[in-house]
Amino acid sequence: MFSVRAAAFALMAGLGLAGISSTANAQALESIKEAGVVRIGVMGEQAPWGSIDASGQNIGYDVDVGRLIGEELGVKVEFVPNAVAARIPNLVTGKVDLQMAVMGMYPDRAKVVQFSKPYAGLKIILLSSQKNKIETIEDARNLQIGVPRGAAQDKAITTLLGDLPNIRRFDDDSSTIQALVSGQVDAIGGNTTYKINLDKAAPGNDFEQKLVFNEQWMGICSKLGDKEMNEWLNSFIDKIKADGRLEAINKKYLDASMPQFPEKLEGVPFTVQ
Fold first, then answer.
1. Is the predicted pLDDT of residue 238 greater than 90, yes or no?
2. Solute-binding protein family 3/N-terminal domain: which residues (predicted)?
3. How far apart are CA 115 and CA 265, in angstroms?
């Protein structure tokens, strides 16, 4: 069965990173300030969270929050587009300083990265044509189902149905969406903002939300053991919530009021333990 933790630990062990010390990690904030730049991982093709506009600039919810991080730190921001499966490896190998590429907060992931408090939320769902009657996940058992490899929807569907051969895994969100539009698959696991991209790819389509697997909260990820960075991020999130800047970003990209974020999540600590 799919396991983010197993994949991440295998990578870390192979690269000799399993023993990264908290002492080394604790220097991240200071190093960022000295370098004058923070490298932040974002999605490159998943509007409204992270995408590239016609002029080649990063845009989206995570991008706007990332820019605020740079402003608060007094440094430049370098956005690094991430494939779904590369998000955790890019953080633990130091290719990015912080990971914000729609990082859902789950216990397996919390074993290998440190989450901040939540700053955004969505729902993990199944989408398909109106023609397909899907009221329970069992109704989709014999359908071709597309998912981004290693994403939360991959795990949700695999947990419920088992690792069926008709679950087709793609490298990123855009490939998964295109598979549904082109008829390669009958349904896809996605999130509540996928419909934005489906409507762009296929105006007038009849794709709709069929099932909700879970509500997903997103946190800003730093390396395990980095208490200084984690504390700074949590204070930053409190600040942009209190002064209305996060509310404005939520309204801009999701056209909704900011949700009531959970005070805790089982198996996902918001602070360094």
1. yes
2. 37-257
3. 11
